[in-house]
Design a protein that fits this description.
The complex is a heterodimer. Chain A is 29% helix and 24% strand. Chain A is an alpha/beta fold. By secondary structure, chain B is mostly helical. Chain B has a two-stranded antiparallel sheet. In chain B, strand 1 and strand 2 form a beta hairpin. In chain B, helix 8 runs antiparallel to helix 11. The radius of gyration of chain B is 20 Å and the shape is globular. Classes of the chains: A alpha/beta, B mainly alpha. Chains A and B meet through helix 2 of A and helix 1 and helix 5 of B.
């Protein structure tokens, strides 16, 4: 899908490559971020997200490839292009002995000029006005994160790059951040955000780019990607998850998938609500899934069709659920003549 | 200019600024106390006279600066290293660069800001030193008539200028080392090790190391000329650069320090 249809491109990379010694961080990354959208940049740990962010902000130079920022090439010597870019990369960086307000003032002395009144506006926006005079060393992680978002917005940027902005935020903070970012996108600004909280990303972003091993594996509008990669989700009692997975394994063609080395088609989800199982089959086969469960004496308390960004992410990045002990050990491959070894319940490795 | 002002504002709020200043002031106070005690207790009239002369006017106008530099140079080195290293450790340099600030410009302005802060500290300590000298003269029963001696006062601007160049050299060196080390602790540690190793090595390689940064700064402040340490066959003569060579070499070392900090930052890949 052409995600840039009918819009300009705020950010684009072509063949972006970067190595750190023998380790390949980026291996020909091609991104196209349309203007005025919230773009979710997803990938497992070590996929190259932060390296990309560093290149986009001029902190690190790519070994090869091209970058375009706000419609013009961005390379060495184009630092002034960043006057229109706001960034929060990795953890927020502040002088611990200065207050929140003083930190913003110190940062405002660099890069694009910032009106003094802007600092108080932003402190208000991120709900830090009451603590603006306190030293940052006394701030919680969430407060530092909010101050980091305020710092990224200092010069009223057209393009905002945020690396894990929800880190450390409480639920109210996450909702506030989501509303702020959506409002910015509605104003025509482009928000490029990486996050590991996929449920959060799914609610926030318009377009998603998923990378693995330094390459883009899928890019497109979230709803379209999810429609293309449907699945059935069922919720059973937590102590019946292993039995349910075993019952659903043949329905989802688990043996064939295991033989082909594909991602396990049935897996327990690692979410806040226990008992959810994702079955990667056509959403139209929901009744069949329910019947298989009932035949095994397991009854679903809920059944949903479609897929989640999490399921899509796991499938595309080749991340595998960790091998935890749920009804036995095994990696999901069916041993000849024996029952399928069900995949696990919690935790991820990448 | 914006970065310079911001740097001075930051340093004014930084606890290390006051800890360093307080430490030098305390050490200076101890030096004065020891001078007064030595002068009062000394049984050798020549020695007592020499000791009294340190805190007596008009010589005190310039002697104070040498006393201050004796204790402050080392701390200026560590302070500059701490400031430079923390820009990397805390990620604040990263934030400035990500806002489109010039890497070299940011480092040069910050280094200059640290030098200005150190010079302000020097002036504060100098005033305190003058006050201590007056107190010392009174305690030792020295006349204060010479406080207003025109020659003594006239020598102050040049002595201050030399001290400022010397301290700037220490700042520049500490800042450059910590920048290359990219770390507050590593920068301070390396700078301190170099400081002491150079000091010891000068006893053995005096001819060569008179060109080194700290030897040049010392020669600049003391007015140059060789100096003998010890008596008899075991004595050591330390070569020191004369004027104006000491000034030229000191300025060159400052320029090298700035260039190293700027060039390293320009080329650096900046991570977390």
């Amino acid at each position: 899908m052409d995600v840039t249809t009918a819009r300009g491109v705020a950010l684009a990379t072509q063949g972006l490559a970067k190595r750190y010694g023998s380790r390949v961080a980026l291996d020909g990354l091609d991104l196209r971020v349309p203007e005025g959208v919230v773009y979710g940049f997803l990938g497992p740990n070590g996929a190259g997200k932060t390296t990309t962010m560093r290149i986009l902000t001029g902190l690190v130079r790519p070994d090869a490839g091209h970058v375009e920022v706000l419609g013009r090439p961005f390379g060495r010597g184009d630092r002034r292009r960043l006057f229109e870019v706001g960034a929060l990369i990795e953890s927020p960086a502040f002088y611990p002995f200065l207050s929140g307000r003083e930190n913003l003032r110190a940062l405002a002395a660099t890069g694009a000029r910032v009106p003094v009144a802007r600092i108080d506006e932003l402190l208000e926006l991120v709900n830090l006005r009451d603590r603006a005079g306190d030293r940052v060393s006394g701030y919680s992680l969430g407060m530092k994160q909010r101050l980091g978002i305020a710092a990224a917005l200092l010069s009223d940027p057209r393009l905002l790059l945020l690396d894990e902005p929800a880190n450390g935020l409480d639920p109210a903070g996450i909702v506030g951040m989501r509303e702020t970012l959506r409002r910015l996108a509605d104003m025509g600004k482009t928000v490029f955000v990486s996050s590991h909280i996929l449920s959060e990303v799914q609610q926030l972003v318009d377009v998603v780019g998923i990378i693995a091993r330094g390459r883009l594996v899928r890019e497109g509008r979230v709803e379209e990607l999810l429609r293309e990669a449907g699945s059935v989700r069922v919720r059973v009692a937590a102590d019946e998850v292993a039995r349910a997975i075993e019952a659903l394994w043949p329905v989802a063609g688990g043996a064939a998938a295991a033989a082909a080395g594909a991602t396990a088609p049935v897996s327990a989800e690692d979410g806040p609500e226990p008992g959810w199982i994702a079955v990667r089959v056509d959403p139209a086969r929901g009744a069949e899934v329910n019947r298989a469960l009932a035949a095994a004496g397991v009854y679903a308390s809920r059944l949903e069709t479609g897929t989640t960004l999490e399921g899509l992410f796991l499938e595309l990045t080749g991340s595998h659920p960790d091998v935890a002990a749920v009804g036995g050990s095994g990696s999901g491959s069916a041993a000849a003549g024996g029952p399928p070894a069900p995949p696990p319940a919690t935790g991820w490795r990448s | 200019m914006r970065i310079l002002v911001a740097t001075l504002r930051k340093l004014a709020r930084r606890p290390a600024s006051y800890v360093s200043l307080g430490l030098v002031a305390a050490l200076l106070g101890l030096v004065f106390v020891s001078i007064i005690i030595t002068a009062r207790l000394s049984t050798d009239p020549t020695s007592a006279l020499t000791t009294r002369a340190i805190v007596s006017f008009p010589n005190a106008w310039t002697n104070i600066l040498q006393l201050i530099l004796g204790v402050a140079s080392f701390l200026a080195l560590a302070y500059a290293g701490a400031v430079a290293g923390s820009e990397w450790s805390w990620g604040t340099l990263k934030s400035a660069i990500a806002r489109g600030e010039s890497r070299g410009g940011y480092q040069a302005a910050t280094l200059f800001g640290v030098a200005v802060a150190v010079v302000i500290g020097l002036l504060v300590l100098y005033l305190a030193g003058i006050a201590l000298s007056v107190v010392g003269s009174v305690v030792l029963g020295q006349p204060l008539d010479a406080v207003g001696d025109p020659d003594g006062i006239a020598a102050v601007p040049e002595a201050l200028a030399r001290a400022i160049v010397a301290l700037t050299l220490y700042v520049s060196f500490g800042y450059a080392v910590a920048t290359v080390a990219r770390s507050q602790i590593a920068g301070i540690a390396v700078a301190i090790v170099v400081y002491f190793v150079e000091g010891i090595a000068r006893f053995f390689l005096s001819d060569l190391l008179q060109w080194s940064p700290f030897a040049a700064a010392e020669a600049l402040v003391s007015g140059g000329g060789s100096v003998s340490i010890g008596n008899g066959p075991g004595s050591v003569t330390l070569q020191r650069l004369d004027d104006p060579l000491a000034l030229v070499v000191s300025l060159a070392w400052i320029a090298i320090g700035v260039a190293v900090a700027v060039a390293f930052t320009e080329r650096a890949e900046i991570g977390g």
